[in-house]
Every structure is written in C-alpha cells, then in structure tokens.
Amino acid sequence: GENVEQHPSTLSVQEGDSAVIKCTYSDSASNYFPWYKQELGKGPQLIIDIRSNVGEKKDQRIAVTLNKTAKHFSLHITETQPEDSAVYFCAASKERIPTFGRGTSLIVHP
Amino acid sequence: DAGVIQSPRHEVTEMGQEVTLRCKPISGHDYLFWYRQTMMRGLELLIYFNNNVPIDDSGMPEDRFSAKMPNASFSTLKIQPSEPRDSAVYFCASSQGLHQPQHFGDGTRLSIL
Fold first, then answer.
1. pLDDT tens readout for residues A48-72
2. Which of A32, B80, B91, B100 is surrounded by the most beta carbons within 10 Å?
3. Which residues contact A3 (CB under 8 A, 6 or more apart)?
C-alpha cells in the first residue's frame, strides 16, 4: 500500500517568515495530494490540494508543489501569522482513500 | 451547510462500559469515514462506508469495535467493552467521492478510566 512520510514533525518560525513542510510518497501511481490543517480541538480541514496533472498550485499565502519524478510534494506558507499555528497533514491517494502523513506541528511566534 | 456533526464532543467512562459515538455526514456525501487519532499512532482509518455499505473495516482494531450506517444521514461507532487503550480522539469524515476532499467533524474525545 501507499506510504507517506512527512517532515519535519515540528516547525517553529517567527511571524513573517516562510514555512515549508515536505512529504514523500511511495506509490508512483498516486495522483491526488491534499493538505489539511488541524487547529486545537478541531478536526482536520482541507486547505489546498493538487492533482498529478499540475506541478504547482497557489492560494493566497499558501502553495503546494509536486515533483512526480521524485515522488515528493511540499506545502509552502509565506508571511506566516500566529493564526497559522496548527498541525498540518499531507496525504496521497490513487483512486482510493488517502494515506495521511504523521503531521507537522507549526508554531508561529509573534 | 452545517458540516459533519459528531456527538458527544467529550466522553469519559469506566473500563468495561459500552461507548457509542455518533456522526451525521454532510448531506449528499456518499462516503463516510471513521478515524482514530492518538499521539503515538497519528490519524488511523478504522472503517469507511459507501452508500451506507461498509467497504473496508481492516482498520478496526478488534471485535470490540463495530460501526453501522443505517441510513445516509447517520452512523455510529460502538466500543463494547471499552478499555483504557481505546482513549483517543475519534473523527468522522464524509466526502462526495473516494478521490475527493474529506470533510471532518470536530471529533469525540474519549477517555476510558
């Protein structure tokens, strides 16, 4: 089955800095890569997703890049704000339920 | 839309008791998922349904766990008898397709004493 590795497990940045979270996947046939944000006491919420027919997708301060050859994809958050502090999960799937990474705890210091 | 609704939000009970967690998916979504989240194991898929039919329950840890979906707007996850190691946050999620974004509820924090 699919295996998704996510790094780092914890990321601490200053407000205004950029944050990058990286994930690798094992199944080269995977073609859907969502990212979820989980705030304290809440369920994960989709923030952005990308399909394998594109290499990059942006939505305001967040962007996701996909390298199919290397089988890795990354989440980029620019101009981080304290409200970006949360746990972020990546996932990968191939016409089946997504396999989730272990999560990255992002802490943005004011 | 109200989103996925889970109840109760918190449950504290003694070992050996039966626990029932409830979920109302988003109307029109034909897939429903039950997850368990712990610090040690992260987010684990327990079971998922398509059109009210269980498709894959390979993630259900033991026979003590069971899940039902009697109709398109309601699902339950039952643990009987409960054990302290079942303590976790349990999430329900729904989606419009298997390969579509999942919408999560806010979870049930379960503590078994």
1. 999 888 889 999 999 999 999 999 9
2. B91
3. A25, A26, A27, A99
CA distance A47 to chain B (A): 10
B40 inside 8 A of chain A by CB: no
Q: Tens of pLDDT along B30-69?
A: 999 999 999 888 899 999 999 999 999 999 988 999 999 9
Cα of first residue to Cα of last residue in chain A, in angstroms, is 41
Closest CA to A9 of A88, A91, A105: A105
Which chain A residue lies closest to B31 (C-alpha atoms)?
A97
Give chain B's radius of gyration (CA, Å).
13
Tokens of B81: 């008898």
From residue B79, alpha-carbon distances to A107, B62, B65, B91, B93 in Å are 35, 9, 5, 14, 19
Tell me, yes or no, if B103 comes closer than 8 A to chain A by beta carbon: yes
A75 membership: H or E segment, kind and range: strand A72-77
Contact A43 B33 (CB under 8 A): no
Tens of pLDDT, residues B70-91: 999 999 999 999 999 999 999 9
Q: Report d(CA B106, CA A45) in Å as an integer.
A: 10
